[in-house]
Structure to design on (402 residues):
């Protein structure tokens, strides 16, 4: 069980940021703590060049180019460094990890841990690199948008066709932000899929995989791949301007969000408590996926706060109710609450209440924009005796039938 615990902790340290240096730094720090490495370093490989991103632990001297010549793709190599230490060379799709261990370490166990993390590490590294590229493109597009705005002010007499062309070019400047939000939305289901797959593998290796475990893991993988597929469809619809609205049942949306985050809550031993749920189905018309995105983001923020504050009996409570002309959804946790000095900042873009290595700061900002602008509602929060309660208020419209 200790080996299983180490693997889970290493798994959970991967992919908590879309910034490469922060993500790798947190990952290496966990690897050093959990596997007893004396040193760990990561090099980004690009066109036969290498760039050191993060190095932690006791500094050692070596020629990374020489080590690269001794590594095999998709294979972990053990290299004798001196009479006391061996180097573990871990070649990934776009990088090389170099870790130092004492010669009497259990390298068979270490190899099994690193191999179980290969897919998730490759996925997270690729996501970070893609995000860096998108941010660079977004800067270029934003610069173009600024120039276009100046032209619009000077050329007010342009015809409708010209105005439409300018609008299309300005819209492209917003695509980088949109893709960033989607990447943020994908991170959790991708993490759940990877954790479920790794969980099956680890339990199987330790003869702990029951048929019930296998079925549960498989169901979570299918559910989250379906969610990712749906997100792709929604992104395509946005680009094609087919902002199709549909009637959904609020209780079903909340239930779907809970199903998606449930595996990560189970891993972190967070209890989900059902509060007051309106018995009569509440219908609401919205653009597909938007409310779901808000709910998942708030639930994930609660999970991160509970884990970061090391709460022992962690729980999240939710409720759905109708009050006069409003639909009210609440999500409450017992993570200790939000400090007074940052209460006015949590909905700001790129501001995060989490550690800088964990959050990007776009989740709650995006939630606020969706609820207030797209859903025409209100998103507020308040500290309770034990934690924080987020309140989503949506207007009730009369449903017309043909």
């Amino acid at each position: 069980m200790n080996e299983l615990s180490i693997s889970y902790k290493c798994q959970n340290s991967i992919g908590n940021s879309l910034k490469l240096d922060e993500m790798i730094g947190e990952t290496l720090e966990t690897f050093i703590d959990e596997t007893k490495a004396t040193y760990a370093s990561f090099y980004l490989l690009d066109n036969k060049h290498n760039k050191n991103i993060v190095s932690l632990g006791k500094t050692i001297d070596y020629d990374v180019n020489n080590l690269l010549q001794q590594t095999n793709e998709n294979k972990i190599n053990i290299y004798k460094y001196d009479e006391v230490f061996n180097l573990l060379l871990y070649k990934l799709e776009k990088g090389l990890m170099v870790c130092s261990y004492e010669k009497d370490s259990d390298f068979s166990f270490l190899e099994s841990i690193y191999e179980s993390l290969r897919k998730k590490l490759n996925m997270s590294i690729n996501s970070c690199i893609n995000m860096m590229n998108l941010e660079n493109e977004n800067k270029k597009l934003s610069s173009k948008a600024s120039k276009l705005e100046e032209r619009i002010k000077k050329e007010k007499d342009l015809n409708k066709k010209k105005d439409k062309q300018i609008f299309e070019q300005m819209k492209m400047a917003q695509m980088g932000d949109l893709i960033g939000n989607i990447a943020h939305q994908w991170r959790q289901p991708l993490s759940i899929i990877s954790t479920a797959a790794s969980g099956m593998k680890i339990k199987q290796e330790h003869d702990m995989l029951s048929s019930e475990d296998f079925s549960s893991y498989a169901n979570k993988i299918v559910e989250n791949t379906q969610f990712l597929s749906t997100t792709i469809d929604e992104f395509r619809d946005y680009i094609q301007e087919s902002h199709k609205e549909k009637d959904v049942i609020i209780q079903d949306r909340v239930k779907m969000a809970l199903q998606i985050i449930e595996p990560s809550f189970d891993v972190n031993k967070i209890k989900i408590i059902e509060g007051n749920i309106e018995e009569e189905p509440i219908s609401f018309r919205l653009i597909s996926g938007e409310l779901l995105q808000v709910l998942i983001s708030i639930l994930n923020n609660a999970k991160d706060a509970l884990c970061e504050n090391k709460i022992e009996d962690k729980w999240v409570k939710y409720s759905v109710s109708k009050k006069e002309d409003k639909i009210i959804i609440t999500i409450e946790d017992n993570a200790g609450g939000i400090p007074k000095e940052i209460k006015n900042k949590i909905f700001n873009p790129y501001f995060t209440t989490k550690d800088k290595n964990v959050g990007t700061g776009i989740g709650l900002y995006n939630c606020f924009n969706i609820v207030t602008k797209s859903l025409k509602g209100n998103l507020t929060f308040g500290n309770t005796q034990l934690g924080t309660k987020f309140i989503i208020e949506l207007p009730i419209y009369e449903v017309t039938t043909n």
The two ends are 60 Å apart (CA to CA). Residues 234 and 379 are 23 Å apart (CA to CA). The chain is about 50% helix and 20% strand.
